[in-house]
Automatic annotation (TrEMBL):
Keywords: Ligase, Metal-binding, Zinc, Zinc-finger. PANTHER family: PHD FINGER PROTEIN (PTHR12420), PHD FINGER PROTEIN 7 (PTHR12420:SF47). Signal peptide: none annotated. GO terms for molecular function: ligase activity; zinc ion binding. Residues 1-50 form the PHD-type domain. This is G2E3 ligase. It comes from Rhinopomastus cyanomelas. InterPro entries: EPHD, PHD-type_Zinc_Finger, PHD_PHF7/G2E3-like, Znf_FYVE_PHD, Znf_PHD, Znf_RING, Znf_RING/FYVE/PHD. Gene3D superfamilies: Zinc/RING finger domain, C3HC4 (zinc finger) (3.30.40.10). GO terms for cellular component: nucleus. It holds the Pfam family zf-HC5HC2H.
Length: 215
């Protein structure tokens, strides 16, 4: 099948309207203003036969709840609304990006916060909602924040095993002390010239020129 949007062959999606022979590639759907529904029976429609939202006309002053930019004065492929919440208007691209960011667990109407009916309506209107938690709950993104500083920052480290070595006991010659203020620098007790009974240490940046324990 040839895609009616880009003209290339290999189009695997055909409009479900009886008698319509328009086919398109899934990536071409947005450019061609087509809709693929993400609920059973997973129908797809071309720009001419796609479902329309039954929402009252919007005033000229209405803005997208997400981007705060003006929307069209009526529902269209690019301007969407939530019929159960007459004041919730948004751009199709904005609500799709929100769905991509928050996933199924947090996707809801940006105004009334209804979730169940809102999700169903958006799926029918072609908004794809990833089945996952929000992207900000991906712990891999924040893994560096959970890492503890693990090497000696002394100008001359005296440890024969190198800056990365530290004893795994609470007290010891090569126990690594982290800065008690920022924890972003560390030093071996001996490299700092401190007694092993010293419980805290501050790096040069936090201690300043005349206060705190310094290297």
């Amino acid at each position: 099948q040839d895609c009616f949007v880009c003209g290339e062959n290999g189009a695997s999606i055909t409009c479900q309207e009886m008698g319509c022979e328009r086919s398109f590639h899934f990536p071409c759907a947005m450019e061609g203003s087509c809709i693929t529904q993400f609920v059973e029976p997973y129908r797809s429609y071309c720009w001419e036969h796609r479902p329309e939202q039954l929402v009252e006309a919007v005033s000229e002053s209405t803005n997208c709840l997400i981007s705060m930019d003006p929307v069209e004065d009526r529902v269209s492929y690019g301007t969407m609304a939530y019929p159960a919440c007459k004041h919730a208007w948004f751009h199709q691209g904005c609500i799709q990006e929100q769905a991509r960011q928050v996933g199924t667990s947090c996707f809801q109407c940006p105004l009334c916060h209804d979730q169940q009916l809102f999700v169903k309506n958006m799926l029918i209107m072609g908004i794809r909602i990833p089945s996952r938690p929000p992207v900000w709950e991906n712990l891999d993104l924040y893994a560096p924040l959970l890492e503890r500083h693990s090497h000696c920052d002394a100008s001359e480290c005296l440890c024969p095993l190198g800056r990365e070595w530290r004893e795994a006991v609470s007290e010891g010659t090569w126990q690594l002390l982290l800065c008690s203020s920022c924890a972003s620098e560390g030093i071996h007790w001996i490299c700092a010239g401190l007694d092993t009974s010293t419980a805290s240490w501050e790096c040069g940046s936090c201690a300043g020129p005349s206060t705190g324990e310094r290297e």
